[in-house]
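How a chain folds remains the central question behind the approach discussed here. This step matters because it turns folding into a mapping between discrete strings. The sequence in question and its structure tokens are set out directly beneath this paragraph.
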Amino acid sequence: MAIQLTIHLFGTLSSKVPNYDHKKGLLVDAPDAVTPEDLLKDLKIPLTHIGFVSDGRQAIQFDTPLTDKMNVSFFSLISGG
């Protein structure tokens, strides 16, 4: 059974997904028990580019199983000096 998720990409991550809509995010259909790591693999975004992942309320782990209608936000690493 498939679930539907809304993905939001912050920082430079959105440049890695063609036609990403900053206002709406990216609506995806995914299999049950999909994780943030699985989504990143599908989007071809390396884990090393991610600072943290949120479910809209709190930070979650890369291996957290996601549920239907969840909003998942990926935030890029911040660097500089």
User: Anything to note?
Assistant: Strands lie at 2-10, 26-31, 50-54, 59-60, 71-76. The first strand starts at residue 2 and ends at 10.
